[in-house]
Automatic annotation (TrEMBL), chain A:
It comes from the Bacteria. One of its GO terms (cellular component) is endomembrane system. Belongs to the complex I subunit 4 family. It is found in: Endomembrane system; Membrane. This is NADH-quinone oxidoreductase subunit M. InterPro entries: NADH_Q_OxRdtase_chainM/4, NADH_UbQ_OxRdtase, ND/Mrp_TM. The chain crosses the membrane at residues 6-22, 29-49, 69-94, 106-124, 130-148, 160-181, 201-218, 239-260, 272-292, 304-324, 336-358, 379-400, 412-435, 456-474. It holds the Pfam family Proton_antipo_M. Keywords: Membrane, Transmembrane, Transmembrane helix. The keyword Transmembrane helix applies. GO terms for molecular function: NADH dehydrogenase (ubiquinone) activity; NADH dehydrogenase activity; ubiquinone binding.
UniProtKB/TrEMBL annotation, chain B:
Its main location: membrane. GO terms for biological process: ATP synthesis coupled electron transport; electron transport coupled proton transport. One of its GO terms (molecular function) is NADH dehydrogenase activity. Residues 134-418 form the NADH:quinone oxidoreductase/Mrp antiporter transmembrane domain. This is NADH:ubiquinone oxidoreductase subunit 5 (Chain L)/Multisubunit Na+/H+ antiporter, MnhA subunit. Pfam families: Proton_antipo_M. InterPro entries: ND/Mrp_TM, NU5C-like. The lineage of its organism: Bacteria, Bacillati, Actinomycetota, Actinomycetes, Kitasatosporales. GO terms for cellular component: endomembrane system; membrane.
Amino acid sequence: MLSLTVFLPLAAALVLLAWRGLPDAAVRWLWVAVSGADLALVAALWATYDGPGIGHETDRPWIPGAGAGYHIGVDGLSLPLLALTATVFLACAVYSLRGQRDIRRFAALFLALQTTCLGLFAALDLILFFLFFDLSIVGMYLVIAGWGHGEQAARSALKFFLYTFVGSLALLLGFIGLYAASDPHTFDITELTADPPLQGGGAAGPLVLLAIAVGLAVKTPTFPFHTWLPPAHTDAPAAGSAVLAAILLKMGTYGFVRIAMPILPEDWRAHAMVFVAVGVVSALYGALVALAQSSFKRMVAYTSVNHMGYVLLALGAAGFIAGTDEQARSTAVTGAVVQMVSHGLITGALFLLAGVLMDRGGTYEMDAWGGLAGPMPRFAALTAVAAFAGLGLPGFSGFIAEFQIFAGSLGAVPVATALALLGILVTAGLFLWALHRLFLGARRGPKPVGADLRPAELLSVAPLLALSLLIGVLPRWLLDTVEPAARAVVGLVSR
Amino acid sequence: MSGTSALLWSLVLLPAATGGVLALSGGGGRTAGTYDRPGGTGPAAPAVAVAVAAVTLVLAVAAALVRPAARAGFVAGGPLELAVDGLSAAVIVTVAAVGLLVLLSAAAGIRAERPRFFGLMLLFVAAVLVTATATTLTALLLAWEVMGATSYALIAFRWREDAPAAAGTTAFLTTRAGDLGLYLTAGAALAAGTAAADRFALGALPALDGPWLHLAAAGVLLAAFGKAAQLPFSFWLSKAMLGPSPVSALLHSAAMVAMGGYLLLRLRPLLESAGWAAAAAAWGGALTALALGAVALAQRDLKQLLAASTAAQLGFVVLAAGAGSVAGGTAHLVAHAAVKSLLFLAAGVWLAALGTDDLGALRGAARRDRAVGLPFAVGALALAGVPPLSLWATKDEILAAVDSPALYGVVLAAAVLSALYAGKALGLLLAPGPSGTAVREPEEGASGPLRSVPLAVLAAGAAVLGALALPPPAGELKQAVGVPGEPSAGAATMAATAVLALAATAFAAALAPRLPEPSWARGWLHLETAAHTVAVRPVLALGRGLARFDDAVLDRGATRLPAAVRRLGRRLARFDDADLDRAATGTATAARRLASWASAADRSGVDRAVRGVADGARYLGELARRPQTGQLHQYYVQALVLLTAAAVLLLLLR
């Protein structure tokens, strides 16, 4: 059933590509139906998952000579991200009901992209992981280059492509290093986790970790590898931005918890401070640069650097095992995983809302607007809710994530955590300032005002925020799945 | 779920759910507004909100009697746990009662966008009720920050003007700076690694060991000082006066700022356990009471005077927590809620009726409008500490716990300042003779029953709530909040402070227009300027600098690399075209030549075969040219394919 979940969107994409005569309206609804069915499948997978450990596993030989297999499965780390993927892609499908240029190819591309994302989060083989990782880059390149707006779209797409592609080469190098060091040689993640290679010192371990970490850090992205992100977001179509921020960035952070930490525990512990430092710098740097942006979309893009910095801080802190307490470390890792889900929901919503701004007035510049709460009250209300969720207000998922990240990391790295904590103050400032410039005060620009949110826009954004609220108020259904997996990761790292 | 936990859940969920729905329901009607004209006004919202507030009050009283507890899963080690004990019983009944009275009054005063206003007020009340009953840090922090967010939205309620929106932002950011302290406290509680099942339980904090105890105490102090507008955070309260008056009457008297004082009363054991923290709270509160008392005395604007006085009065509560008078602090908190709520509502009535809250322009307003003026006078006298009204007794109860002479002196001076600023307001508003210039005649019905009834009820509270600090109820309050051994004020002290307060009030009332108004005090000690200089401006400058660095250095560095790669690619392409391609074409040509030579030599036999070879070679040459598209990403794909192929090959051949 997991394979069906992963490949159903791809099958639908092929059908759409082949069936040229299909009317646009049918394409739109077919897309929504397939995405909805896929979300239902993920929900069923979650409901029938009896953890802890790996469930819904399929392990078939694929390239036996190279030690690579078609090995997929789910656990408490991947299920939430699979669910997030299906949810965000469904939201994009619903959002596109309002109309989209060349909808047939657009839908096909998104469905194919959905398969790569689902496949990555389900992959338990490094080559499979790498394959989906790279295909997602190609898919997103086509989305930005083909449907982006602005003269810079092709250039931004190319930059995104090159940057993340070079990163993926580093990742591949690291994977080959792992393969070469394992005995017997294998690319299988579960085998590598059970019997980690490169233990016991030596120069190879740090080098392999460096290669993998650089590859993942580019995708996450962390400082200083983040400069592809703002132009890619600015020029991508709204749905593309939502997927890029909500899902593709998570591939980087997911790689850390799925691959880097469990397979290279010794080196992770030895270099944990590096990850903490990169995390803190990313968190503060992202927040401060976001504060200085005049474009709403670029601002949201930089807040992603900030939010992903918290994830790295927590994962780094989990590498400090001397003098810290296991419960604290589990709390930090749980927070990091929840942050991935939470950021996906909230930032996905924010980027879809940014698309409304572009649609109505053709600009993301905040100073061009002002007083929008009058003519567009629903747009203002939803954006305000998303902004408060984004600044980590309790009651939304961001708080569940960030509270656990900070509380869990403080014992291991008190100074770094206290510094990162300042990030939530800067984030609060920048979101409130953005709300003020867009929605409150006097009308500034002579911009014509379009209609308030259309049903497709409302029905795509509101559920994402409702889910964030649900996690923020009643998080147990999520945490009951995440916590055992986070404890397992902490146990693997401290081997 | 047991019956009692259902009671507690409904107490907090009823206002939360109704408030959330109301706040998001828009204008009631489906008519969207425009830039200038608000949407529907939602005539039903006030009635719904008042009804919910009334039910909430009933539930709060029931909870105060039943003392229920409730628990729901949240994060590991930190469930959402609520419980009502003596201290929270006093607070929730106060908040629910003041909330109901303020909403009644607002039903007459707020005309536009009522669903949003009343929804946010109910949400706020729910957050306060959770804050006051929380027994875990997670539940506390949840409600604590939601309180801050709703206060942002309420202060910025008149969003069409820039100033209230900026004031809301200031309030939220300043109090959130303090809130960071609670995150530190939570981290310390987790890091200390105690054996407690719920590490985030408030009750476990005093038992933390080593440096974590001190970090936890410091975090709590920071959070409480931020919310209670103590020094150096007080300035946000001044700007918050741009919000509607009912907002001030609830947030800046009974609830939000009061919760800062409440937190320290609740966590008095933690402060005591950390040692220095109790002294820091005592001195911080006393100095705020003194400094903000001076600020209040220098104000020319009624709401500004009341705001500064709120920070000063909360200073007494914070002092009580530090000095060890939890019962006295609780009594002061409750009595001050009634007093200040009354004064803000009265100020709001005059602001609406006369269009000003400038003290000079309001001259004699209380005398002309008795329905508002009389309750106002009671409130102001209570604020002054005039016996037998409430704050006189509660303040003395706190004073009894102070044993350092220096601290005692500061507190006494602060008490005299309260009498002075209350006397000043009273003197101006009750002044006979010609009215101020800006005063227009009160509108008809400006003080109808919706407004006068809450004022009368609050005035009664302001008058009699001091009983909480007088025997015998004082003894019962001490039992209820679990501090039976706390000292009470002696008769001599009470007589002395009574004389002092009376004299100072009379003095200030008589000399009201001529009291000094030094600019440092009028300008709230220039705290906001200082905050801008040391925090806001440097952070903005740093952000801009980093943004430039990001574009100019990091990004350019990143683009320069691909550019170099592209140059390399072009050179390779040239090499491809110039040499490889020539070689390929050359091969084809050579083959053709060979073919013609061969056909010349042997036209019949091998001709066809040789031509086939030539065509094949030409085709190969074309194939070799095909990948040279000049498109960088295609080179990358080729590189990747080659690399992967090489890797696979290596692996297969190993």
